[in-house]
Specification:
Blueprint: E1 2-3, E2 24-27, E3 35-43, E4 47-52, E5 59-61, H1 73-78, E6 83-84, E7 89-91, E8 99-103, E9 109-113, E10 116-117, E11 139-142, E12 148-149, E13 151-158, E14 162-166, E15 174-176, H2 189-193, E16 198-199, E17 204-205, E18 213-217, E19 223-227, E20 230-231, E21 252-254, E22 268-274, E23 280-284, E24 291-293, E25 297-298, E26 301-302, H3 308-312, E27 317-318, E28 323-324, E29 332-337, E30 340-345, E31 348-349, E32 371-373
Parallel strand pairs: 3-7, 13-17, 22-28
Antiparallel strand pairs: 1-29, 2-8, 3-4, 5-11, 6-9, 8-9, 9-10, 11-12, 13-14, 15-21, 16-19, 18-19, 19-20, 22-23, 24-32, 25-26, 27-30, 29-30, 30-31
Amino acid sequence: MIRKGVAVVVLGLVSLTACASTPESKPVAQQQETVVALKTAEIDDLGPVVTDVKGFTLYRFDNDKPNESTCDGECAASWPPATVPDENFSVEGVDKALVGSIVRKDGSRQLTVDGMPQYRFAKDEKPGETKGQGLQGKWFATGKGGERTRLAARTGVIAGLGAVLTNDAGLTFYRFDGDKPGESTCDGKCAESFPAVTVEGEPRVKGVDPKLLGTITRKDGTKQLTVANWPQYTFKNDTKPGEAKGVTVPQWFATATDGKKAQQNKAIELTSATVKDLGVVATDKDGMTLYRFDNDSATPPKSNCSGDCAVQWPPAYVSEGFQVQGVDPSLVGTIERDGKEQLTIAGHPQYLFSGDKVCGDANGQGVGGKWWATKADGSRAGQ
């Protein structure tokens, strides 16, 4: 039985080791330049970033110090240093005065930008990928001026709260009732528990209305992000995406995507979040990525995934009267399956992936050339 136009409640359209050396610092050689070592590329949502000569994104590590790399061993296996054979190199699109090199413990020469050692990420498989962005909250693509290139805000999902704002690493943003619009009153021990969300340069966002964003200057001179004029913070006890332990502290609330306080609503079963480099995709109530299958039919809606397929790709079931946030409700429906209701978006049956373990995972993307994360409009992500 096909059920279209399921009654839903609309909650608004929105878009979740260092391993030490004391290398020698060397300026860029002034003699004849023979090798182009660095270039720049425009990356969606991040703007211009530094790349190697093949176009692979280069990163900087917050545990490093100017002209000192702390990434060796297993760390360097995941984050290969960007090296040059010698000092005879040139750069394109980067101020040459910012570029130098250091000698690592193994004798190789690693590039620096504004003093910070540069690395590739082993899981970036092609130019333009930024899979290392924000990892561990310490690795960031390098801007053309050597600065961290990071998203100021993106979206994630908290069970029972729906879509909230997060940082690059997926950690929940909070607002404080003790603050005033445009004014932070959280410093000292308060700021140790709820660190201010700081930004460098123009705030960049993904899945968030940029008109909501602003900054204020804190007492220490740093720029703190504001959303709808409310200062933003993370919580020290949140360690991974999907956590919002700070809401148990009086006067603290997770920040909804419109800047307001996120409120408990356990009826939300379909929402959306920013997932990796796929943009805003549909998720279930726990922030787990939803997928569509090319072998299914959308008109009429029909699932062709059963048996072993359905074990690997569990159908996304919903209950009667479920609520929707971040997806156009006119696109939402269900089909009857084994006495339950399987969710559909734009007619396409929806599934989870058994290989996804935590919210924000999208390990099912592109599997078999037929499985794709579902964008908020029902189309295939990454296509």
